[in-house]
Amino acid sequence: MSCGEPHETDCAEVLDHLYEFLDHEMPDSEGHKFEEHFEECSPCLEKYGLEQAVKKLVKRCCGHDDVPTDLRDKVMGRIELIRSGQTPPDTEVSTGAPRRATAE
Question: Which part of the chain is the Putative zinc-finger domain (predicted)?
């Protein structure tokens, strides 16, 4: 993915190390380069926002529970489809467990 514009930090480098940035596992100097890149590159900013939302959703929904292997495989498959630019099918990913009612 690239917006076609030249950047100090290349889009491919940003996307290759996106999870290090999301997980705060890189030096501040590298993180600042990524923040600057997101300010000028809307496709990378959109990708960052999507990955950040997925990470928050997984944390909120799964907490510290062990994730069933088949569910993890389904989710990772969907993530890979999205990363490759494909549209995942509109089927719901099921854990096999009954849904809990939530107050919204």
Answer: 11-44
